[in-house]
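quick one
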Amino acid sequence: MKRLLLVAGARPNFVKVGPLMRECRRHPDKVDVRLVHTGQHYDPEMSRTFFEEFGIPDPDWHLGVGSGSHAAQTARIMTAFEEVLLGWRPDVVVVVGDVNSTLACSVTARKMQIRVAHVEAGLRSFDSTMPEEINRLVTDAISDILFATEKSAVDNLLREGRSAEAIHLVGNVMIDTLHYCLTRLDDVPGKRVQGPYAVVTLHRPSNVDDALKLRGILDALCVIARDMPIHFPMHPRTRRKMEENGLQPLIAGAGIQVLPPVSYMDFLRLWKDATLVLTDSGGVQEETTALGVPCFTIRDNTERPVTIDEGTNVLAGTTREGILEHYGRFRSGQTKAGRVPHLWDGKAAERIVSVLMESGEVR
Ligand code: UD1
Ligand code: UDP
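structure w/ uridine-diphosphate-N-acetylglucosamine:
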């Protein structure tokens, strides 16, 4: 019996642990799986709703750390997670993604000589101003088992000196969740939007913490909204920055429907039929590629190059002019065909859990 401890803390983590939890529970004779929620995200629409939609059981431990500076939040998670590991010693701690909870729990576990598996290893934006890039580098450097979503990630890990034995190209658990939810979408009540429309999500500090940058992006969205309505479920960080900088009037009456963060199912219903998605989210870049929905990434780089090379994703930059130039081309018919990347087939969790069940003491 393998003792696996899954860690989740922020919205994209819940999307990733859902399939892992389901798959582990299919093997009750081989896996004793438990879940820690660090509490990095805590609003019901950023946390609770995903547990309900994905059928994830209540966490075995809720650390309740809440928001704070990077150092404060990471330290609180480490302190609380250490207590968990002192009380229940797993064979492997499984961390996902690139958030502060990922970094904090992987470091804590490894210092206690507990093996760490990282799901979504090897992605690199090569932009160290991005907090997630630091989290990825540290987590991958100390993890024992590295699960990659795309070939570029495998190449990055090998270049960094990780042994091929530790790396497993398994596909993408986010797409497992997408498949799982697509088959259930018709059973969940909700309204469809008619006609052409765009969907926007924004939350990267580099876009929303800088008031000038955010103003430029919002300006571009106002111009686009004259052509097609925009639906914008707003991340709490962005809402706070809009308020702090008095930017709400800029978009009032512009045809941009601002919503609170919406549930996974409601968001899926919205973006899957959208004419265009504009986002700075990591996960949304992948999801749009998986369903062939046109996506503009409002960033200058991406750690998920397969979505550009093979998928429907386009790097549209972060300036008003750049975004509008791309939009003009898109509206004149210059759209991008895409294909679904290798192994993004809804079975990544199956592959991951099978490796974890077999895993020995490889470092
Ligand atoms: C975090 C991750 C980011 C991920 C994003 C997903 C890090 C460093 N960043 O960014 O990689 O893409 O989650 O959404 O781990 N807040 C609330 N309610 C909540 C959560 C947050 O109001 O439930 C507000 C607080 O004001 C908080 C701010 O949002 O200070 C930022 O939250 P935080 O978790 O620190 O970072 P995110 O921007 O959410
Ligand atoms: N998402 C959601 N509701 C929303 C916005 C996003 O359910 O209002 C989902 C989205 O489909 C994806 C995940 O949240 O599965 C991505 O999370 P986020 O963009 O917060 O983080 P990132 O992927 O950038 O780390």
